[in-house]
TrEMBL record:
Naturally occurring in which organism (per UniProt): Streptomyces caledonius
Taxonomy, superkingdom: Bacteria
Lineage: Bacteria, Bacillati, Actinomycetota, Actinomycetes, Kitasatosporales
Family statement drawn from the similarity comment of this UniProt entry: Belongs to the enoyl-CoA hydratase/isomerase family.
Family annotation (Gene3D superfamilies): 2-enoyl-CoA Hydratase, Chain A, domain 1, Lyase 2-enoyl-coa Hydratase, Chain A, domain 2
Name used for this protein in its record: Enoyl-CoA hydratase-related protein
Length: 246
């Protein structure tokens, strides 16, 4: 099967699948280049409320397919561009992980908002095996996610850690028994899609450290009907119908 990025949109959830089974879903240069454009299109689609990133078959992503990099391309630059596009996606993002999540795979997973994994998954950040300086932005994002001590552990050693360790380190939000990942991800994605987009988008900016739009979000909240709708739905014991859009 060719190396490609697949995607579907259903019930408010966009699912992007990293598909390169011959090499454990390693990202080729063309896949790295394609991801930002794909994300831009999904970000602008009003039918998309949540993004799920996963891998085809039993592996999430084993990193970069170095053999696909030709013409002097810098694999770090390609990976960082894709990582930043995922981090900037304006709607909730969730990485659904099974099997290997290594190198560029861990980089992409860390750029998402949430990470759910299946028992047996393995995680690693491996530039120390190759004498590569891990990108500054990626290092800071990893340290922000798991703390400096765990970031140093992963970067200094380049060792793989199991899903239990990744959960304790704070890399994972949830760890699921074998066979239950897809069901839980679908369930949680539906929950996210039902919640207030106003709350989610503002919270994402605040949590990611943006500080220049506090006033903007105060104005958006004041001009939105989401709060009144949420309170009314709670009192009437019904599902809310939130209407705010960016």
């Amino acid at each position: 099967m060719d190396a490609t990025l697949l995607h579907t949109v259903a019930d408010g959830v966009a699912t992007v699948v990293i598909s390169h089974p011959a090499k454990r879903n390693a990202m080729t240069a063309s896949m790295w280049r394609a991801l930002p454009e794909l994300l831009t299109g999904l970000a602008g689609d009003p039918a998309v409320r949540v993004l799920v990133l996963t891998g085809a078959g039993p592996t999430f992503c084993a990193g970069a397919d170095i053999s696909s990099l030709t013409g002097g391309e810098d694999p770090r630059a390609l990976a960082v561009t894709a990582e930043e596009a995922l981090a900037a996606f304006p709607k909730p993002t969730l990485a659904a992980i099974r099997g290997f999540c290594v190198g560029g795979g861990s980089q992409l997973a860390a750029a998402g908002d949430l990470r759910f994994a299946e028992e047996g998954a393995s995680f690693g950040v491996t530039p120390a095996k190759l004498g590569i300086v891990y990108p500054a932005s990626s290092t800071r994002r990893l340290a922000s996610l798991v703390g400096p001590a765990w970031a140093k552990y992963l970067l200094f050693s380049a060792e793989l850690i199991g899903a239990d360790h990744a959960l304790r380190a704070g890399f994972l939000n949830e760890l699921l028994p074998a066979g239950q990942l897809d069901k839980r991800v679908a369930e949680f994605a539906r929950i996210l899609a039902s919640r207030s987009r106003l709350t989610q988008v503002a919270a994402k900016e605040f949590a990611d450290g943006r500080t220049d739009r506090d006033g903007y979000w105060e104005d958006q909240a004041a001009g939105s009907d989401d709060t009144a709708e949420g309170v009314a739905a709670f009192l009437e014991r019904r599902a809310p119908h939130f209407t705010w859009t960016p």
